[in-house]
């Protein structure tokens, strides 16, 4: 049985990926410093799957600790989720973002080389397409000019991985560019658990719906889109997690560097998301329209043909599923994992 190491695996996307990897028959080892997560997420992954996960509390920048993990486990592939991801915070604390995100990557690459682990899959983002590429985004497009330090960390890490793979023909890399993951596992046992005021749309909507926040502000109504609000390619986190399983299957059989967009290819506007959420769940989401948020692009979405062609992956879940599962998680866990720690 192959063993997959999830760096930052207790987080939102990592925990859902752990479930799908375990269901597909992989062994899973997770390390996380819980800077934005809780070990409870992994306990619940074990409950959902009936399988166990080897869990380490560790900072991925800590080479000594990483070596201990690599010594104790025969790792076949790494998935690198460990990173800080709040765009606004990255503008205020750029050095913290560069330090954390770049250093985790460098430490992983160093320790992988030492232990002859040759496969790594990286959580990149559609943000690397920058401001001026036309939509839909295609993997063959150049990385663009990013609008914030978070985005730059992703673009820089992609470059680091490409350079490392160029220098070492034994190293295989898959860069997964996620679009906008929302939703939660249908059990409602794991989901997105933001700390403080959510930055992202869906957690904000669910917190308004559950009564934790007064109303949603929709940022901008004068964009060049059909209803004037921004459009994004929202993807169910379970579909995204399954994309990682396909990427693992692929990297274990192929060498080199590949980039894949993981999105649906179908954008929805903010207003469409709010309306769908209210309709599917029968709950009101009080909202008002406000000013544009700095740095937001009017619309972007994926061309996901390459993932279908090479990985045999495409999304299966609908916007209805995304809205229902986000609400199910929020209702069952109004305070996220906090009451369970
Ligand atoms: P998350 O914050 O839930 O997960 C990241 C995990 O990494 C957390 O559990 C955090 O505690 C951990 N972590 C951070 N720094 C660490 C360190 N130095 N050592 C050990 N653990 C550390 O975020 P997520 O939404 O699951 O995102 C996972 C990855 O995907 C991130 O790299 C993120 O930038 C990327 N991504 C996310 C989105 C999104 O919208 N959620 C979109 C594109 C890319
Ligand atoms: N958005 C909004 N109100 C909020 C949070 C987000 O109108 O409180 C909008 C935001 O302007 C963007 C979309 O929702 O058009 C998705 O934002 P999110 O931060 O979730 O993702 P990203 O900006 O990374 O695409």
Descriptive notes:
By secondary structure, the protein is an alpha/beta fold. The chain contains eleven helices and 13 strands. The strands form four sheets. Strands 3-2-1-4-5-6-11 form a seven-stranded parallel sheet, with helices on both faces. A two-stranded parallel ribbon has the order 7-10. Helix 2 links the parallel strand 2 (27-32) and strand 3. Helix 1 (12-23) packs parallel to helix 2. The chain is globular and about 55 Å long. The mean pLDDT is 97. Residues 8, 10-14, 32-37, 59-61, 81-85, 100, 104, 123, 125, 178, 180-181 line the site of nicotinamide-adenine-dinucleotide (NAD).
Query: What distance lies between the first and last C-alpha atoms, to the nearest angstrom?
Result: 31 Å
Q: Strand-and-helix sequence, N→C? A: EHEHEHEHHEHEEHEEEHEEHEHH
Instruction: Look at the helices and sheets and give the structural class.
Output: alpha/beta
**Helical fraction:** 25-40%
Ligand inventory: nicotinamide-adenine-dinucleotide, uridine-5'-diphosphate
Side-by-side strand order of the widest sheet: 3-2-1-4-5-6-11
Report on the biggest sheet. 7 strands, parallel
Low-pLDDT segments, ≥5 res:
none
Which radius of gyration do the C-alpha atoms yield?
19 Å
Mean pLDDT: 97
Count of DSSP helices?
11
Shape: globular
Number of strands: 13
Strand content: 15-25%
């Amino acid at each position: 049985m192959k063993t997959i190491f999830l760096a930052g695996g207790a987080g939102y996307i990592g925990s859902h990926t752990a479930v799908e990897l375990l269901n597909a028959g992989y062994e899973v080892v997770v390390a996380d410093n819980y800077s934005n997560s809780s070990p409870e997420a992994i306990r619940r992954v074990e409950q959902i799957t009936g399988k166990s996960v080897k869990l380490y509390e560790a900072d991925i920048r800590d080479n000594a600790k990483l070596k201990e993990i690599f010594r104790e486990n025969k790792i076949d592939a790494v998935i690198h989720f460990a990173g800080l991801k709040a765009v606004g915070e990255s503008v205020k604390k750029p050095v913290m973002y560069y330090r954390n995100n770049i250093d985790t990557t460098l430490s992983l690459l160093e320790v992988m080389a030492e232990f002859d682990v040759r496969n790594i899959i990286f959580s990149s983002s559609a943000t690397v397409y920058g401001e001026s590429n036309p939509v839909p985004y295609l993997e063959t497009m150049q990385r663009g000019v990013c609008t914030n330090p978070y985005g730059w960390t992703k673009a820089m890490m992609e470059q680091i991985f490409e350079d490392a793979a160029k220098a070492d023909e034994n190293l295989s890399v898959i860069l997964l560019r996620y679009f906008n993951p929302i939703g939660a596992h249908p059990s409602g046992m794991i989901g997105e658990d933001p700390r403080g005021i959510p930055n992202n749309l869906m957690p904000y909507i669910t917190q308004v719906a559950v009564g934790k926040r007064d109303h949603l502000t929709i940022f901008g109504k004068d964009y060049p889109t059909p209803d004037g609000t921004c459009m994004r390619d929202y993807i169910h986190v379970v579909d995204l997690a399954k994309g990682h399983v396909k990427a693992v299957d692929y990297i274990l059989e192929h060498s080199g560097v590949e980039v894949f967009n993981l999105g649906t290819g179908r954008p929805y506007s903010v207003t469409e998301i709010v309306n769908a959420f209210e309709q599917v769940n029968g709950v009101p989401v009080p909202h008002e329209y406000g000013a544009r948020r700095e740095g937001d692009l009017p619309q972007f979405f994926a061309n996901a043909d390459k993932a279908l062609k090479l990985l045999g992956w495409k999304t299966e879940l609908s916007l209805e599923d995304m809205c229902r599962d986000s609400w199910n998680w929020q209702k069952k866990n109004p305070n996220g994992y906090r009451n369970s720690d």
